[in-house]
Amino acid sequence: MEVHNNINIDINKNIINECEIENTNETYKNNYSVQELNIIRDKIEQMTKFNQVEVLRILNKNKNIILNENKYGIHVNLSEVSNSVVEELKNYVNYVMMQEKTLNIDEQQKEMFKIKYFSKDIKDNSSK
Would you kindly state where each structural domain of the chain is located, as residue ranges? Predict the structure, then answer.
């Protein structure tokens, strides 16, 4: 019986040592730095609700991602998300940013045309 007890103790020591090693290494599932993940997070937080729902769909496609929901929103630990999912998030964030930039340029151009061609002063001058 003593041998059996010693084996159990050794097994428990190995389990504890493996847990300690995992906690000290802080291994991540992706190769992105904390700064890069923070930038992605900040850009997602600045998006409209519609775009944030689309981000949630991207995250929800992968069943390995843990989504934590409370009254303040849905929280995800991006350091535990795989490279492919983070890359997909980056692509979507870039797409939304380019879309907003293009829309802003179009709106500025529309206002410029409005002032140039549809101003009341121009109509009055052309009728004289």
Answer: 28-126
Token digits of residue 103: 């829309």
- Has residue 81 got a pLDDT over 70? yes
Query: Do the Cβ atoms of 26 and 77 come closer than 8 Å?
Result: no
- Hey, what's the torsion of the CAs at 35, 45, 47, 34, to 10 degrees? 10
Structure tokens given for 40: 């992605």
Burial class (CB in 10 A: 0-12, 13-18, 19+), 79: middle
| pLDDT tens, position by position, 97-126 | 999 999 999 999 999 998 888 877 655 555
State in Å, rounded, how far the first CA of the chain is from the last one.
114
Please state the pTM of the whole predicted model. 0.66
Of 91, 72, 74, 75, whose CA–CA distance to 83 is shortest? Answer: 91
DSSP secondary structure of 1-52: -HHHHHHHHHHHHHHHHHHHHHHHHT--SS---HHHHHHHHHHHHHS-HHHH
Among 64, 58, 61, residue whose Cα is nearest residue 81? 64
| Residues 44/52, Cβ–Cβ less than 8 Å | yes
